């Protein structure tokens, strides 16, 4: 349910921008090079392959953007034996308001963002317990006993917040984008034990901090 609400909110965010854009003139005829495509390498730090980010000017000072990145690495959790491959994707819709109306998609900006992430992976854990903890026996103990378990992990994450950034254009084409933001997010985390069919679901809220830079072209 929370995942469906997150998708609906993100769609509404982009739909509202699209509705607004329909009331304006054809931006490609009134503004030179109203598009930017950026590539962000830093997303690998959160398990994503390089992110492709597309931005479109709606007016000389207002733009809409969306980023997409496949997820390739699972998260490290308590007891995990290390990194593991993962499947999934992340999308990153934005609305930006630039301070300058003379330089389209160029300079300081503020805006709103939404970050949606959906992923799954398998995780091998090593639990070191006494036999009585595992088997329920109070008479037999072995401190060296280790139990290897494999879990199927499903996780969805949604964040919404405010951001600010600086995107200078060098020459006519080359773009560097720096941005940071703060918002609130929630995560739904489900783990299923392949050996015992045990499963656990957790829902957590958190403050979401973002810091990123990307390189791209304006066209």
Key features of this structure:
219 residues; mainly beta; Porin; 8-stranded antiparallel barrel
Give a short overview.
With 219 residues, the protein is mainly β. The protein is built from three helices and nine strands. Helix content is 14%, strand content 55%.
SSE string: HHEEEEEHEEEE
CATH class: Mainly Beta
Number of strands: 9
Structure annotation, total helices: 3
Determine the N-to-C terminus distance: 39 Å
CATH-defined fold name: Porin
3D architecture notes:
It is a single chain. The protein has 219 residues and is mainly beta. The protein has one domain (2-218): Porin. Helix content is 14%, strand content 55%. The protein has helices at residues 2-22, 27-30, 131-135; strands at 35-40, 51-57, 62-70, 86-98, 107-128, 146-167, 169-170, 174-193, 199-218. Strands 1-2-3-4-5-6-8-9 form an 8-stranded antiparallel β-barrel. It is elongated and about 60 Å long. It starts with a helix and ends with a strand.
Question: What is this structure's SSE topology?
Answer:
Blueprint: H1 2-22, H2 27-30, E1 35-40, E2 51-57, E3 62-70, E4 86-98, E5 107-128, H3 131-135, E6 146-167, E7 169-170, E8 174-193, E9 199-218
Antiparallel strand pairs: 1-2, 1-9, 2-3, 3-4, 4-5, 5-6, 6-8, 7-8, 8-9
